[in-house]
Amino acid sequence: MFSTRTSDLLWAITSAVGASFCLIVLLVVAAVWWNPESRPHLDRVSFRIVTVALFVNMLFGISSTVGGILTEDSFLCGFSIFVLQLTLQFSSFLLFCIVLNLQLVVLYGLDGQKLERYYFIGSFLMSIILVIPPYAAGQYGWDPLEQVCWYTNDDPRQRIAWQIGTQMAWTAMLAFGEIAASVSVTIFMLKHRIRTRQIFVSTSGNGTVSSSPPQVVHANNYKRIIIRIALYPLASCFVNVLSIFTALHSTLTDGIHDQEDYNILLLSDFLYGGRAIVYALLAASDPALVRGIQTLYHSLRGSHNAHSIGKPSSNTSGSPTRSSSQSLVVQVELSTIRDYLPSEASIDDLPSRPEPSFVPSQKEGMINVPGKSASASQLRNEYRNSRYLPSTEPMDEEILRQEQAFHRQI
User: Fold this and answer.
1) CA–CA distance, 182 with 106 (Å, rounded to integer)
2) CB-CB neighbours of 81 under 10 Å
3) Could you count the other beta carbons within 10 Å of the beta carbon of residue 287?
4) Are residues 146 and 110 in contact, defined by beta-carbon separation less than 8 angstroms?
5) Which residues form a coiled coil (predicted)?
6) Residue 261 — φ and ψ, nearest 5°?
7) Separation CA 67–CA 142 (nearest Å)
8) Pair 295, 31: CB distance under 8 Å
């Protein structure tokens, strides 16, 4: 029988580091949210879910640290595993809700902000339902197989039944659900991009183009953010699926008997302990938080400069600094103006302003505008230069409002 003390300490240390990372990121998020100028960067359903999941993972790291330090059965041993399982399931359901919300908003046009409360309520209720029965049945406590706080039942069949029924099966279903939802959103957006690229190719027939749902158009504008949001559930899927096999190994082999069993145990402890580290790093590198930190820095720096000279700060052109901060708020999460609709969207997706009438030309690939004949590419460039460059005309207020609303929902 191998001594598992080293693996227990690995679990405890990585869990403590992960909990510390989560706490640091949460403090940064609180600072960004506290400032009214940087707060709009965090006004996104997925980021609020990530913030709650980050707090839950901090509790997960603390309970894992306690479970890894204890060396004998006690009330604290069983309770720490109860908290561990509760936070583990709660976090897994929340991360699944991120990609689920993405699917509901992009594919079906539902309002993510209205669904937000149900994500939290449903995730918490499902977690409670899964962890209370095994805790009430005394299944959490000192593990005779791994010599650590985990499942107490030494009967292989009953132990596997409890592990699969209350943890592993649900973890696997959430992981595969995350994959399915991510793939569906990706395929849907790719199909839309292909279709919109073809609208200027064929101008035969009546020349009409079917319009796309507004949320799909906005999703194309936010494709980088959507891809970044998908990293959360994908990382969760990778960690969870791998941890399922490593956690079940000692049960299937009836303990730790050789070096291979011990190496798998080390991997299992590292995955459980490093889980909080992964989510803390993902949240810390989220573009919303990064831009919020930048805005907070410039805001505090501007306030300091204004206080030091005794008057409101201004830029070199004489316009107030607040105007630049308002521009940042307006352009929350938008990469550049040139990433918008004209290059890829259909005519029906463009802002609802008076448009010239498009009539199919006799010549293939040409579009007739009253008094002018132009190719599709020329028309797109002309439209882009006349409508979307900020130096010529500001963005349509209704389109901007829709963009901001979509940002808050994803």
Assistant:
1) 11
2) 29
3) 15
4) no
5) none
6) -60, -40
7) 9
8) no
Amino acid at 334: L
Q: Are 69 and 19 in contact (CB under 8 A)?
A: no
Rounded to two decimals, what is the model's pTM? 0.72
A 10 A CB-CB count for 231 gives: 14
Strand, coil or helix: 189: helix
Torsion sign (Cα): 76, 77, 78, 81? positive
Residue 22 contacts residue 58 (beta carbons within 8 Å): yes
Are 402 and 218 within 8 A, CB to CB? yes
DSSP class of residue 141 equals E
Expressed in percent and rounded to 5, the helix, strand and coil fractions of the chain are: 70, 5, 25
How far is the C-alpha of 276 from the C-alpha of 398, rounded, in Å? 41
Residue 214 has phi, psi (to 5 degrees) of -55, -40
**Residue indicated by tokens 């995350």:** 178
The reported pLDDT for the residue numbered 316 is: 38
- In the block, tokens 């791994």 appear at 146
| CA distances for 358 relative to 18, 197, 208, 292, angstroms | 59, 18, 9, 43
Query: 151 by DSSP, 3-state: which?
Result: strand
Mean pLDDT for the chain?
76
| Bridging pattern class, strands 359-360 and 366-369 | antiparallel
Q: Could you tell me the residue ranges of all domains in the chain?
A: 5-292
pLDDT at 381 over 60: no
DSSP state of 165: I
CA 342/CA 162 separation, integer angstroms: 56
Residue type, 246: T
Residue 342 tokens read as 């004209």
Superfamily of domain 5-292: Rhodopsin 7-helix transmembrane proteins (1.20.1070.10)
**pLDDT tens per residue, range 164-189:** 999 999 999 998 898 888 888 888 87
Looking at residue 260, its amino acid is E
Question: Quick count: other Cβ atoms within 10 Å of Cβ 214?
Answer: 15
